[in-house]
Amino acid sequence: MRVLSGVVILIMYYTNVSWAAYMPINSNNAFDKTMATYNVSKVLNSTTNSVDVAAYQAYGPPYYAIANLFVTGGNFVYYTFSVVYVFVKYWRPLKKAFVGMVVNTLQRRSIYTGFRDGHTRMMRGAYPEVPEWWYGLVFAFGFAISVAACVAWPTQTPWWSILAVTAVGAVLTIPWVVIESIAATGISLNVIWQVLPGIWFPGQPLPQLVLLMLGGAFEQMAGGFTTDLKYAHYAKLPPRAVFRGHVSACVVNCFLYCAILEVMLAYYNSDNTLCQWDNKEHMVCAYAQSVYASTILFGAFGTNNMFKLYPALPWLFLAGALLGLAWVAAETYLPRFKTAVLRARVFGAGLGDAARDARYAAFERRLWDPAARVLACLHPAIALSGALNWAGNTNLAYATLGIYLAWLFQFYLKRRYTAWWGKYAYMVFAGLTVGVAVSGLVVTLVFSFGAGKNANLAWWGNDVSTAGLDYQLYNNNASLVVSGRRRRRRGW
Ligand SMILES: *[C@@H]1O[C@H](CO)[C@@H](O)[C@H](O)[C@H]1NC(C)=O
Ligand SMILES: *[C@@H]1O[C@H](CO)[C@@H](O)[C@H](O)[C@H]1NC(C)=O
User: Fold this and answer.
1) 204 C-alpha to center of ligand 2: Å?
2) Domain membership of residue 139 as a residue range
3) What is the tens place of the pLDDT at every residue in 334-347?
4) How far apart are CA 32 and CA 23, in angstroms?
5) What is the number of domains present in the chain?
6) Are 88 and 50 a contacting pair, CB within 8 Å?
């Protein structure tokens, strides 16, 4: 899906969909009408921090590069698709989870009530459970501090929007965790907090940013917590210890993140290029750039104006929902349709039993079974999320390494050396992850701060990622039309 969507993006770029050819193809920036990076200071009133309409009319709207537009639209499809798909397909477990949560809390029953699987039998009674009021306390603290922060600082964000963040999070966190546990890829709450604040507070980028961060944090915290609890359940760790560990890690992280920001400003911004494509230390801040661009486009420019500029976008929500319904319906009814209609009516019309069975068997063998085999290895949510990894300077090189490893472990080793795979695959996975962290530490300490600060290690592995046009494209105004490489296409 990643490759396929790349081809779609290329086609859209070369046919100049939505002025695409005037911008870099894979950038996650917002661009102005001269196709330079959008300078939001030019349209903001510096006292009120909201858009000055006269200044905006002089400067013009912001534009998305095509990969970013594709990913934004694709996220809309993915969003409604996965919500509908998960709610319809997993309605029973979801209902059980929601009802169990309320009933068990009200009646002060164990959270294991109604589960009889092996893991639960081993966990039940072995350790004291985390009482519900501990969670209540964490929630009350988070809620109070969010409201206080929004009200006490000039964020332009009214306190009731925290209620909205809570409500959306409460409804969508469990479906999110369902997809996450099946597919290791979630439903991004970012989408809803991209769109809604821009409808409520058009012309004001600040509430957009605040709500995007708070809404995303709700999802990450709740989802991360659930993931930890799940691992703890499988590994038979005491739930209270996991709770304490997670909460203290959050507290420590609050201070760490502020410290990291200070360190980045102190060490990587000496030439004032932090978060720009030509930063010497490659601190290009891909995610921060995406957030900045979406804050400009949805917040400052306003969601409704954004939808006027790109009229296909709102329809993609509908397309995703319909696709989700269609997919579940197909999963449920196609097998029945096959026997009831195809076997009985289409292949059987006017034929004897033997002739009908022969024709039907041939149809199954040639058409139905191969198609079913292909579809069976395609989880629609994973496939869709695979298509959405473009934009933000993450070209195909970011994915291909993963493909080699995935093929080696999940295909070759799993089939050929199943016992070895069963014993060591997860260890190797953990080892590689730790290896990345340790090498990141070493590289940062040695080459950013230590003896290797000015070392110049020129070899293919270091240079190849910045050698091509795809790196230069990032934020550098290298585009199909303006670059002069393809002047004959200027007819656009
Ligand atoms: C953005 O616009 C402001 C206000 O016009 C100006 O002071 C600033 O230099 C501009 N920044 C860039 C990067 O062009
Ligand atoms: C910003 O807005 C305030 C309040 O509406 C207004 O008094 C001021 O003139 C504006 N500043 C600029 C530079 O337009």
Assistant:
1) 14
2) 2-320
3) 888 877 777 766 76
4) 10
5) 2
6) no
